[in-house]
Amino acid sequence: MKKVLVVFFVVVFVCVIGSFGFSQQQDTQPENTQTQDQDTAEYLKGFRILGEPTEAEIKDTAKQMIQPVLVEDFEVPGDWEVKMSRDYGVVSFMTRDGFPRALADIKDRNNKVLGVKVNFFKRGPAEILIRPVRQIKIPGITKKIKFWVVGRNYTHTLKIVVRDYLGSEKEVTIGKLNFSGWKLLEVNIPEFIEQENYKVSEERGLTLTGIKVVCDMNDIVPGRPFYIYFDYITAETDLFVEKFREIDDMSDLW
Known about the structure:
- This protein has 254 residues and is α+β, with helices and mostly antiparallel strands.
- It has 3 helices and 12 strands.
- Helices cover 26% and strands 38% of the residues.
- Strands 1, 3, 4, 7, 10 and 12 form a 6-stranded antiparallel β-sheet that branches.
- It is globular.
């Protein structure tokens, strides 16, 4: 009888110990799983930061690389020429004294503007093309172009003419000239205008080849002169590659 009791107590003891161990193992498993999930989350978080920056980080990086660049200040006479079909009128141009009030703090080095005058003979699809004598290469990848313009409340349309890095000329519309006095106009350069080939080491970016005024024939008054003035063209351009390119890199321009 004593042997039976001893065996019974041993069996009960073993069952209790086994149940406790199994329960402890079950309690431990969620902790291990939770720790593993945390490790995975930390890994993915690190990968996202290193390999795929957040939107805010991309913006910060872009701000560090995009810088304003002076393209033209019209201080030197003879650097620009103006053309127009003689079927519709006669155009004249000259460098004149003046500047926008917003640029008064730099008037000691920027006090000239380019003035254009047109005497129309008749109404028609006239276009006025203002071109630099030497085309102006803008460094880096141009994101935006800004310049000051005097309007006279006409509904003519203002455009810029640029050449992409492949040599093709493109026109980008800025807007109507239906305002009076100096106004800072700006235009974003669309992505379809190609500015680089990342597989080739060559001169990137755009070349400014002209400014165009497309006249609204309904707003042309024969015998009444049309005036427009330009000053201080700037560009917001990404200079990352230009700043960090290795000095011993080879150029593919040959």
